[in-house]
Amino acid sequence: MKEQNSSREKLKNLLILAARILAIVFLVFAFARPFINSNEETNKANGNIVSIYLDNSYSMDAVNKEGSLLDEAKRRAKEIAKSYQLNDRFQLLTNDFEGKHQRLLNAEEFVQAVDEVKISAANRNLQQVINRQQGVFNGAANRYAYVVSDFQQNFAGTDAIKKDQSTQLALVKLSANELPNISVDSVWFPSPVHQPNTSEKIIVRLKNFGSDEAKNVPLKLTINNQQKAIGSITVAAGATAIDTLSYSGLGLGWQKGVLSIKDFPLTFDDELNFSFNVNANQQILSINGNKTANYIEALFNADPYFKLTSVSENNINYAAFSNYSLIVLNGVSQPSSGLAQELKNYLSNGGSVVVFPSTTVNPATYSSFLTTLNLPSVAGLVTEPTKVAQIELKHSLFKDVFETLPKNMDLPLANRYFTYTENSRIAKEPILQLPAGKTFLARYPMASGQIFLAATGLEETDGNFSKHPLFVPLMYKIAFESAKDQPLFYTIAKDNVITLPSVKLGANQSLKLIGDGFEVIPDISHQNGKTLLYIADQIQKSGFYNVKKADSTLAVVAFNDNRAESNMKYDSQSDLEERFGTQKVHFIDAKKENISSAIAEKNNGTELWKLCLILSLIFIAAEILLVRYFKPQVNK
User: Fold this and answer.
1) What's the pLDDT tens digit per position in 453-492?
2) Three-class SS state of 161
3) CA angle, 576 as apex, 575 and 578 as ends, to 5°?
C-alpha cells in the first residue's frame, strides 16, 4: 500500500512539474509574440510606406456615438500610424488633394497633419483616391494604403475599382447612421430673357433623400439680399418635387440669387446660389436682300428692348456676329459659301438663325447654301396658293401665346414656297406644316445653336405670313429663346472652367476672379468666340465671385457645394467587395474590430500571443488544482 501511495505522490509531482513548465513556456512564448505568417509579399528590411486617406467630405460632419465622424476618422488614422514603426514613412491624403499631401511624413509630422484636417467642400470618388495614393509609392518599400471613410454610396460608385497588385489596401469603415435629408437640387428659368421691372418666374427642384415624406418644406427666394418670394412644397420619400415661384422688381445688371430651405441636421445643401444678368436690350441682326420688305425692322423696332441692326447682304461684318443673339436672313438673294461657313461658326457658339429665303432666285442657289449648313436641300418651287395645314401648339414657341386653344384657327397662306428634301438623319422640329407634312416653318438644332427655316419669304407675293397674327408672337418667342445666357451656377471641384463671351484683353491685361476674401488670376484661353477661365481647384467655398477686368465687372458667377454628398446612404462590405471583384482587399470594421490588432494580423499574419497567454493561465490553474485536490490515498 505504501508503494502505491508513493507512486501516486510521484505522479502528482510530475503533473505539477509539467503544468508549471508548460505555464512558464507559454508565458515566454506570449511575450515573444509568435505568429503564423500569412503575408509572404512583404520584406520588413525594406521599410514601409503607409498612405492613409482621411475622408473630410461633408458627410463626415455627421455625428455618431463617438462624436463627429471626422473626429473618429482622425483617431483611427492616428491608431493606424501607431501600429507601424517610428522609422516608417506616412502620407496623409484628404479630398483637397493638396500638393503638401504628396510628400512623405514621419509619425510625429503625420499626427500633427491629421489634427489640422477640416471639413472640405471637395468631393472625390474611391478610384480617384486609390490612384492618388498609388502616386506616392516608390522604391522597394512595402506599400500599405488605408481608406478611412463612411463609404457613402456615391463614394465607391457603381463601376469596378482597380488597384495595383503590389499595394496592400485596407478599407476602414466608420459606423454612420442613415439620415433623412432634403437638398435644393437645382433652379432654372422658363426663359433666358430677363427684363427690368417685369414679372418673372423661377422653377425650383428639391430632392428628398430620406425614407419619409417631407411635408410643407418652406422655400425662400432672395435676390441681392432682398426677399422676393416664399412658398412651401411637399416632397415624397426618395423623390424630387418641382415648384414655381413668381417675383418682380429687378433692376439692370448682375443679380445674386439664393434659394433656401430649412432642413436639419444636414444644412450644407439647404441653399443654392445662382446669378444672372438683366440686360437693357437684346441685340438682333437682320441681313437683308436687295429687294425685301421692312417687316423685320417694323417688328423689332416696335419694342425698345430689342436693338436691331439691319445690313445689306453686300455689306456684312462677319466679325460682329458674336455680338448678336439672333441673326435673321431676310430674303437674301445671293447666299454665299462664306456666309454659310461664318453662320456655322456662329451656331457652334450657341447662336440662333432664322432663314426666310428669297423665292425669286434659282432654287439650286439655296440648295448649296442650306446643305453647307447641314439643312435639307431645296426640292423645288411651288407657285400655287397653299394654306398651312397644321400648327404644333405643343411646341415651346407657343407656350403662353394662347390663353385658350383656338378651334378652326385661320392659318397662314403661302403663294410661293420652297419644298425641301426630307432627310431622316437631320433632326427636325416641325412648327408649321403645309399639306402632306411639308415644311412651312421648322426648327433644326445645330451644335449648340439652332436654325429656324421657313419655306417662304416675307414679301406680299410670297403669302400673308408677315401680316398674319401668328407672326409677331412667333418671332418674339424665337428672339427670347435665342437670348444667350451663362450658366446659372457652377459646382465646386466639378466645374473647373468658367465660360464667358469673348473678352478682348490688352498686352498686359488679365482677368481676376474676386470673392469674399478671395482673389485669383485664372488661366485664360480664347476658343470659338468665347473666353474660358480655368480655375482648377482654386475655389473651395460656395458663394458669388466677380470676374473683373481692371475696375469693370464683366460677370458674376455662383458656386455651390456638390450635391453628391447629400445622399446619406452607405455601402456595406459586400457592396464594396463586389466593386473589387477578385482583387485582394482587407476590410476593417471600426465598430467591431480593434484597429491595431487588425493591422497587426493583416501585416504580420495570425498572431499567437493571446493563445499562448491563455494556455499559460490554463496550466497555472491546472497546477493549483493538482496541489489542492490531487491527494495520494491514505492507508487506514
Assistant:
1) 999 999 999 999 999 999 999 999 999 988 877 899 999 9
2) coil
3) 70
